[in-house]
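Please check this.
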Amino acid sequence: MRLWLTGAFGSVSLITAAAVYLFGDNVQALIAAVMIGVLAGFLIAVAISHRVVRLARAAKEMAGGSFDAPLNVSGPDEIGDLARALDSMRASLKESFGVLTADRNKLAAIFDGLTDVVMVVDFEGPIRFSNKAASRLLDSAGRPPDVVLPQLHRASEVGFAAHPALRIGDHAYAMTARSLPDERAVLAVLRDRTDELRRELAEADFVSNAAHELRNPLAGISGAIEVLQSGAKNDPLDRDHFLSRLADDAERMNRLTQSLLTLARVESRGAAESEVVDVPAAIRDVVAAVEPPPHVALEVEVEGELAATGDPTLLRQVMIGLLTNAFKNTPPPGTVTVRGRHDSEAEVILEVIDTGSGIPAAEIERVFERFYRRSESRKQEGFGLGLAIARRMVDVMGGQIGADSVLGEGSTFWVRLPVAQPSPTPVA
């Protein structure tokens, strides 16, 4: 600025001297010198003002978050120094804001990738931040569910709140909330525990049912041993009777143990390696392995050149179980049909159809639960594990299993697998 003022005064002095020299030492020369000086001062002031305005505009753009346009103000004076300092600050701020933006985007991507619900809620109520997972809980106005509000209020008052299982719709969420006093907000995290709780309940039910199933043969074995020890062992007829009971109960425990081990092995398996299964060949093996009871006819209807993607061994076990159940639940005279066909261009469907008593609609889905036995079949031998094992085996193969039934007319159990092109040399 000092250079500008010095230059300005110097210029005015030169102009004044020139005017006096040209017009002489009179009033006219003085007026001309003053006018020329004022004009020169105005032009100099405009030039200075223009440069300052450009600096002010650049500073305003930086305040608004724009750091891209460089400052093109030059000069060896103080304004030039200020412009260069501002441009250096702009470059530094641009780099810093770039790093902050990249970090913010990474953090946002991390939060949006979480399956847990993350929210930051102001003490006054509005939501300041929420990730994508939170969208399924927020209402159309962006408000959190009413059931979480007491936990948010508690966290804002005492600093922390937690709940092991808040019910929101059909789901259960574990919630933790922590106060952010500097932000005057609460950070809330909700984790969906629905499947976890269902699994815990299923495991507890499984253990209870397994213990119940084992208790009966164990009680029979203990009772038979007690009777034999009390003197029945000396009577040949009583001894043979209770030894037979011991053998039956031991066999029952052995079959239950084998079923539990089979279920555990299948549950621990991941997806099976895909193979091409020759369905007609697999069905022939299944039919040969299961003998139909007297007066129950077996019919086989399988399309030729039918191939599916799956595991040949698992598929045989599933079909043997379905065929055995069909024979067990079909009173004579009756018919059991094994059918294999294309259900669409992408799927193969295998069906086991019986003419038994059928299944009530309310029980169709439950027949695939572990240890579940239909009311009509509870008098029969079995533990209710066969269909649960079959379902898991089909899951491992990437297929589907289900049942359709008409009470009093019969049932159809079906297995759907992805279709495959026939192998030149049959795999199964």
